[in-house]
Amino acid sequence: MGGWASLFGAVSNRLPNYVTQGAVATYFRVSAIRDVGFRGTHSIQTVQSGQTMQVRVLPALSDNYMYLLVDQNTKEAAVVDPVDPEAVLKAVKEEGVKLTTILTTHHHWDHAGGNKGLLEKAVGLTVLGGDSRIDGVTRMVVDGDVASLGGLNIKCLATPCHTTGHICYYVTDAQTDEKIVFTGDTLFLGGCGRFFEGTAEQMYTALVEKLGALPSATKVYCGHEYSLQNLGFGSHVEPENQDIADKIQWCRTKRELTPAEPTIPSSIGEEKRINPFMRVEEGTVQAHTKTTGGIETMRALRAEKDNFKQK
To answer: Is 110 among the residues known to form the active site?
Structure first.
């Protein structure tokens, strides 16, 4: 991802969006064929069921995740970042649910590139997004906007930095204590997205002040399977952090299975223990970066992570 990310960061703000997206689509399709073959996936599909919410994890491309969110009482469903429309429609049919909504976290092709194809095959969908560069948006949302899916409440959290229009979707149910958040490329298990279009100040607000304020039990469904890479960096930053060491072993167990299993979801509480980007106010992290203050620590961490090579 490193070479691609550097190239994307250099050109994404200088070329028209359709040119950038076309190049990105080609890159991701070729990478997926190289990494998992024509019919393979990087992980198996899994289902997480609560009292009223069900999340079906849909792996895509080389390391992306899409999610089918279902209100089990009404059988209404939403899909998050449906880059592979055929896989989404197959899952919808297997679950026997009614797809009504697309939740798009940001405009990058590996998240929003399937919107157009899905809209051609499933008419009448409501498409939420926070960026005019997202295909098919029917409802442009901003921070604090609320949507519903059956009896589920969906709160839009603006988290600009990775892209200027990035939205995380915080889902709750008034009848139960279930809470989940779809974080796209803002928050990963053990890490965060590159600052392609934003600043350390913005990522600090997103991770520490906004996502970090959610209840600790909130389950986190992120956009990519980057867990071991991120935790390797976390261990480099805090070599004495036993929570990170334990999570690395747990993730390795999942990823070494045949076929591999996803390492998501994590939780907000867990991220505060293992994710250096959510621990920028901790003395151990600031000692590593030789900085004081969370924002400067965030800036230093991201710069180091952008060039970090796992030993």
So the answer is: yes
